[in-house]
Design brief:
Layout (H helix, E strand, L loop, with lengths): L7 E6 L5 H10 L6 E2 L3 E6 L1 H10 L5 E10 L3 H9 L12 E9 L8 H18 L4 E2 L6 E8 L2 E7 L21 H11 L7 E3 L6 H10 L40 H14 L9 E5 L2 H14 L5 E5 L14 E4 L11 H17 L4 E6 L2 H4 L8 E7 L2 E9 L10
Parallel strand pairs: 5-6, 5-7, 9-10, 9-12, 10-11, 12-13
Antiparallel strand pairs: 1-3, 1-4, 2-3, 4-8, 7-8, 13-15, 14-15
Length: 409
């Protein structure tokens, strides 16, 4: 298989719970989904499709190209199976690669060993075929290989992404319990917000929901922050593909390289950005330090000019006069569920704020505690399941009109 000229399955991996939102985006992009699991979905495409998915997906982690599927019982079989893959077609002998793995196999007590065995097999194959082998390590600065091994099912992929798409790179300053970028984007998409009405994020913390909302509002490609993708280190990235053309400016008699195609896609995405007429986006927090962290992260993301920052208690957040937007809140969950009186009061105040101050808006509360969620006291229209790491969470969606703001019975 040649990833620059052929068509092949594209396996898109997601954090648990984000497959529905990613599936919706992939289908809106015009792709047909052939298979889904709890953490992956599969479509079909070629060079441009692989690059486009890496560039545009907001809620996915990686775009993977299957190289081998087999039954594998132990590490000895793993080594032999990986050795059969023609790595010399994908990796540069003078390059660099990294291996990541997810392993659920009873014969493996140290989950680091499959990645090490995979590295050994790749190095030995390259040395036998090329007379030398590429360097390897843990950094995402070259090509990437991903191994999934569950029971006897082994799947080896060329990882075209490298460092996960969830790590946009703009969150330079940390804050308490930050929401991952892909999760924040999925919650925003699930709220029904389309980037044309106000978006308000009280309790903004490090600012991730407000920043992701701004990126959606200006239509900035989520992958535009990454300077390196795994596909950039695949053999042939800079070589000319006969008959290919990057755009109308390239004459048909000239070919172009995957590198030129990627630069053209990035340029197209930049042209498609919306630079005027963006809706009000508000980020507030009671902590002055949190507001400053959020502001600095927004500067790093290039969207600070689209966000208004306020230091205040969430209940005092100044909302835009026009309604019909989204108010998104990600309050603390608490470790002693139902036993923390302060959190009971906090969630009650959230309900009062939504009911009294946010008429016309869609209210969203993200929490891992349904016991605390009941303290909000409003009738939710939807309860969308998500996971924040290992925590089973819900996005509670409230339509805050006169009827939707009624107290629960």
């Amino acid at each position: 298989m040649n990833i620059w000229t052929d068509r092949y399955p594209l396996v898109i991996s997601c954090a648990k719970g984000l497959v529905p939102q990613t599936s919706n985006t992939v289908m809106k992009m015009g792709y047909r989904i052939s298979h889904r699991t709890d953490t992956t979905l599969t479509t079909y495409g070629g060079l441009r499709d692989m690059m486009r998915l890496n560039l545009e997906l907001r809620t996915a982690h990686r775009v993977l190209v299957p190289l081998k599927r087999s039954r594998c019982q132990n590490l000895y079989h793993l080594y032999n199976d990986v050795m059969t893959i023609p790595w010399e077609n994908y990796l540069d002998a003078e390059g660099y690669f990294t291996v990541n793995s997810v392993v659920y196999n009873d014969t493996v007590r140290d989950t680091r060993l499959p990645a090490l065995k995979t590295k050994d097999a790749i190095a030995d194959r390259m040395r036998a075929r090329q007379g030398r082998r590429p360097d390897s390590g843990r950094e995402f600065i070259g090509a990437s290989v991903f191994v999934f091994w569950e029971g006897e099912k082994l799947e080896v992929y060329l990882d075209t992404t490298g460092e996960a798409l969830s790590r946009r790179g703009y969150r330079k300053l940390p804050w308490k319990a930050p929401m991952q970028e892909t999760l924040a984007a999925a919650c925003i998409l699930e709220s029904g917000w389309d980037g044309t009405t106000p978006f308000v994020a009280p309790m903004c913390g490090s600012g991730t929901p407000a920043i992701e909302a701004a990126l959606i509002a200006i239509n900035r490609a989520a992958g535009s922050f990454k300077s390196h993708f795994g596909f950039m280190a695949v053999k042939g990235y800079t070589q000319i593909i006969p008959g290919e053309k990057a755009g109308e400016s390239v004459r048909k008699r000239f070919g172009t390289s995957p590198e030129q195609i990627w630069k053209h896609l990035v340029a197209q995405a930049k042209v498609a950005e919306r630079i005027a007429g963006t809706p009000p986006i508000i980020a507030s927090d009671i902590s002055e330090e949190a507001v400053e962290v959020a502001r600095m992260n927004a500067i790093a993301a290039g969207v600070s000019q689209y966000i208004t920052f306020q230091q205040c208690d969430f209940a005092d957040t100044r909302l835009p006069t026009e309604g019909h937007g989204v108010v998104f809140m990600n309050p603390v969950y608490g470790e002693r569920l139902g036993q923390d009186d302060e959190l009971d009061v906090l969630y009650g105040r959230i309900g009062e704020f939504l009911a009294r101050r946010c008429h016309g808006y869609t209210g969203c509360v993200f929490t891992a505690s349904m016991e605390l969620a009941r303290k909000v006291g409003l009738r939710s229209e939807r309860r969308v399941p998500f996971y924040n790491g290992p925590l089973d969470c819900r996005l509670l969606v409230y339509e805050l009109n006169e009827e939707g703001a009624l107290k629960e019975h």
